[in-house]
Structure prediction request, 799 residues.
Amino acid sequence: MINAEEKKDKIDSLVRACGVLLRMNKARPDGRKSERLYYEMLANYYTRLQSARDEGKFIAAHTVFFPTEILYAMDIVPMHTETTTWMISLFTGECADLLSAGADLGLAPEICTPHRGLAGAFAIGALPRPDVMLWSNLICDNTAKSGELLMEVNHCPGFFLDHPFQHSEDEKKYLVGELDSMIRFLEEQSGHKMDWDRLAEIVGLIDKQIELFREICELRKAVPSPFHTQGFLELLTIDYLFPGQPEAINYLETLRAELAEKVSSGQGAVSNERFRLMSFFIPPMYLMGFLERISQEYGAVSVTEPFFTYWGEGRLDPSRPLESVAEKSYMIPEMRMYGPLDDRALKSIVSCAEQYKVDGAIYYADVGCRHSCATVKLFKDTLNKIDVPMLTLDCDVVDPTITSEEEMREKLEQFFELLEDR
Amino acid sequence: MLERFREVNNTFPKTSEILEHKGKSGLVFGWLCTYVPDEIIHAAGALPIRITGHRQETELEDGSAYLYVNNCSFSRSCLQMGLRGEYDFLDGVVGGSTCDGARRLFDLWRHYIGTQFHHVLTVPRKYTPEAHTLYYRQVVQFKEHLEEFLGIQITDEKLRQSIELYNESRALLKNLYELRKLDNPLITGAETMEVLDASFRMPKELFNLCLNDLLRDLSNSTQTHQGKARLMVTGSVLTNPDFIKSIEDQGALVVTDELCTSTRYWSDPVVLDGDTPPLQAISQRYLNNFPCARMFPSDERFNRILELARDFRVDGVISQIIRYCVPYAHDLPLLTRRLQAQGIPTLAIDVEYGTSGSGQIQTRVQAFLEMLKVKQR
Ligand code: SF4
Ligand code: SF4
Prediction:
């Protein structure tokens, strides 16, 4: 257990950890420049949070798929609760403490570890106390239900952003109304005014960012594919933490140039590309290093993640900033998993598999994630129809006690053998 | 009279009424959530029934293969019955965007089970005027979709008739619950659950007749029930009366319940006044009804639970949460604290849908009752 003197939050540790990663990148002769920029951004994100905490600035804690652009436009310091908890868990190795603190709050083991962990992190003070708690129902019940308990734990007010389930015009209007109410709530709580010009500017940058995401995806279609297997997590984090931020554009442009260079020189992410994979959901964070190694060893690279990197169609209009924020939330790749899971979502999987010349798929079936696991069979059946086999790996995003490296290796090796024999 | 309800429950889904209705070329629609206004299906001339799972806790091989083991056993159980053809008479399935379990059940039902008509309503999670406007539009679209599918008009007159029939049903159930408020209730919790289950499995017209008869019999009866403690059951969906019986067999009496298959299904009437168009009245009622754990703020639900606890003078609350039922599991710590603040102890138990109450559950209930006894001294 974390002892009493140690109760201070873990943001300082995150800043230090980002610094170490940055130095490691610089020390490597082949260190990617985009990766360096990525770690710099992370370090800056947590340094900003650190000084906001020290200077008593207004901090808004928020859950995943949240329109953080609103916070940036209001000059409010954001804290992405899931990402920050994952990082604490990963860098300080305190996963068990966080989860048991979540259990002490009365959260059942069936509540997914990201949410049990983050509630625990607030309870023991590993995350700093925010001034407001913001959350929405994207993308699951765990997220939708998390906020009220967190408000109680943190003794702070909160706003629940109700995201409608389908895409009708009525629903879009409702969402814009929700965003508007949230802005009013934030103005009251923080004393900061919404800067609409700034929001318009940010929306313009998000539009550019989405275009860059799309271009990067295009480049990943190349054979061999240029982006390393866990690279998509960087893309995900960029959208989670830095929507419409100039440094995000810089990172994405740098990455695009690097990938384009690799494509034109016929260089792949792995030295001998044998298997092109489609990935569903998030691999265990604590096995990232191992997953990269096995990817190199077997020449198996994730080339597409339909629900994480494949953005929906459409462009944003800075002259209608709030409508655009709403519109963006409909374009988020994971939105295909939300709302009724109809043929459109299934067709997009098939289309990705074809466009990216996928040999097989891996579904990281997170034991606590109900809404995603309920699609395992559906996706498997869908892919089997076009003769793409899918491996389901039972695991947990953060809890290392659920699957070991050995178990993962055994299953992956068997799967690669199966692909090889085809 | 209870036998009539038991017979329906024991033969559901292929009850004689449903088969008879189908025999006369009648249409049957299944609904998946209490935010689906079943009056509208009734007003369309079809028979609405609630989709529920296996009567008892069962191996859920198919349900788990399709929905994965980490979805609630309620949705897995429903899907398994669907996959095995037990609902093959359905002409339509209607769901709401209520929780992950229910929405994925709907997704897979649509994909793997060949029911003809599907509709899902977006149900906001708030009660703001904007949420009401959105839900009202959803209700209108649902009605229009039904009209288009059936090639009919659902007139205001028809809607009013259905509302009245449903309100009558609600009023009768309220009368039944009044009998549970007595010091010595005239009906047990397990018996009540037989009535409740039948309420969404029978044609309402017939159900109301039967419930009227039951109420008459009960008011003439001299048989009363006592228990060492008056309990309320809350939490996830529950349809197996044996579960309640297993609690009552230990000497307690379940006098009220906060479940989507009980009070939350029937509690609030549709208020039909002269001016309000019936669809508007329906949509008001459904969004404002005794809330499910999915709604925000949760205090709307908690306050009504506290009110029930006071009205029915409960000594303790049993929260039964189906494993992986996230909405209720998340609310548990908040609810427990609020009940404790009122001096009402809570026993939280993890269950699988359909359970009759295992030995372990019984031991825990026994210990809980002992604790209540000590507290009462
Ligand atoms: S792991 Fe799944 S259930 Fe948990 S927050 Fe993420 S999407 Fe939701
Ligand atoms: S409320 Fe709970 S039990 Fe009911 S369908 Fe949803 S998750 Fe399952």
In short: Chain A touches chain B through 44 residues (CB under 8 Å). DSSP finds 17 helices and eight strands in chain A.
